[in-house]
């Protein structure tokens, strides 16, 4: 397998900037995980950096994963596989043909895409794994969105990085907000917080803005990922009141948004030069502003984690600028 220099020597941190415009009665800072310098960045690259080592340890010659035709995760994995010199196979639910730059990039990297009805995803994955093994390949399966313990690990490390950046900038963040989807980003950050709280340290709360799931299901999946990370040894560190996840700003579910979202995206792009997509980051930024208003939170330093999705920004460019 080829080496990738960035993953052999990861960056110490991604940039944190304070926004100049007025968006809230608080100071808003943004951590630019969208600028991780591999395959257009984003939280899927932080997770992929964990899978980079896992694939090497397993001696995999084929990586298989799951995602929609707009998936950021699939783009990053297809790029990772190409750079490593191994094959990539993507299972994707059938959709109404809507094209995206992410899918285009996946195809450019020579990944094979197999579509199936959404109800048949797990059988299709099992059958494909079986088929590849029979061919004599050594396939490795990564869950959709890079979900699972490796994805969680990536964001436990990111929480530590944020604590160091607080010292560097001389600022104490009250909360970290971010777009919450499969839940591993939130599980990782929350585990970081739980561990530091247990050590008696003051550290930022973590608030996930749901971009798709309703609270009940969203919380359950995050709780499971936290339990998986903490294991039996540290299970007692878990406190349900530390799992802050709101479904108030789903705006009808995955991919839906409104004019307030596009207006905010336009404002942030034109005044700060920071692109945000409508499915994840722009919607979560909008949710954060509304949440701070609703809870009458004022005068604090707030960190928004920019989780990436830059190719999606271009899919909707005409409506956003
Ligand atoms: C996948 C994704 C998320 C959600 O992250 P999870 O760890 O799945 O909750 C947020 N933002 C962007 C841009 C993403 O691609």
Descriptive notes:
By secondary structure, the protein is an alpha/beta fold. It has two domains: 211 residues, Rossmann fold (3-Layer(aba) Sandwich), CATH 3.40.50; 102 residues, Rossmann fold. Helices cover 45% and strands 16% of the residues. It is built from twelve helices and ten strands. The protein has a six-stranded mixed sheet, with helices on both faces. A four-stranded parallel sheet has the order 5-4-3-6, with helices on both faces. A hairpin with an 8-residue loop joins β1 and β2. α2 crosses α6, α6 crosses α7 and α7 crosses α8. The longest helix is centred in the middle third of the chain and has 21 residues. The termini are far apart. The mean pLDDT is 96. Bound molecules: pyridoxal-5'-phosphate.
Using only C-alpha atoms, the radius of gyration works out to: 19 Å
Strand segment tally: 10
How would a crystallographer describe the biggest sheet? 6 strands, mixed
**Which regions contain 5 or more consecutive residues with pLDDT less than 50?**
none
Oligomeric state, counting identical vs distinct chains: single chain
- CATH class of the largest domain reads Alpha Beta
Strand order in space, largest sheet:
1-2-10-7-8-9
Distance between the ends: 42 Å
Shape: globular
CATH architectural group of the largest domain: 3-Layer(aba) Sandwich
Order of helices and strands: HEEHEHEHEHEHEHEHEHHEHH
CATH topology of the largest domain: Rossmann fold
């Amino acid at each position: 397998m080829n080496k990738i220099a960035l993953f052999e020597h990861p960056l110490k941190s991604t940039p944190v900037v304070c926004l100049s415009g007025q968006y809230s009665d608080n100071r808003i800072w943004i951590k630019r995980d969208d600028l991780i310098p591999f395959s257009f960045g984003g939280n899927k690259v932080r997770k992929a950096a964990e899978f980079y080592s896992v694939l090497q340890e397993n001696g995999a010659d084929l990586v298989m994963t799951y995602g929609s035709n707009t998936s950021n995760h699939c783009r990053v994995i297809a790029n990772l596989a190409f750079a490593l010199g191994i094959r990539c196979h993507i299972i994707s639910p059938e959709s109404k043909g809507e094209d995206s730059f992410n899918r285009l990039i996946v195809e450019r990297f020579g990944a094979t895409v197999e579509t199936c009805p959404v109800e048949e995803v797990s059988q299709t994955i099992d059958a494909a794994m079986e088929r590849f093994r029979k061919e004599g390949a050594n396939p490795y399966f990564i869950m959709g969105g890079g979900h699972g313990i490796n994805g969680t690990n990536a964001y436990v490390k990111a929480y530590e990085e944020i604590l160091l950046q607080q010292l560097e900038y001389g600022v104490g963040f009250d909360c970290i907000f971010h777009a919450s989807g499969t839940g591993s980003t939130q599980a990782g950050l929350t585990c970081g917080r739980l561990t530091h709280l247990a050590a008696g340290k003051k550290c930022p709360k973590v608030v996930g803005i749901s971009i798709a799931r309703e609270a009940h299901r969203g919380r359950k999946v995050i709780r499971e990922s936290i339990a998986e990370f903490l294991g039996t040894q540290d299970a007692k560190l878990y406190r349900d009141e530390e799992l802050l996840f709101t479904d108030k700003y789903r705006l009808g579910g995955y991919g839906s948004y409104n004019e307030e979202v596009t207006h905010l995206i336009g404002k942030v792009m034109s005044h700060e030069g920071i692109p945000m997509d409508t499915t994840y980051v722009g919607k979560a930024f909008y949710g954060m502003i509304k949440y701070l208003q609703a809870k009458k939170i004022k005068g604090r330093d707030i960190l928004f984690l920019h989780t990436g999705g830059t190719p999606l920004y271009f899919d909707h460019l005409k409506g956003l600028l």
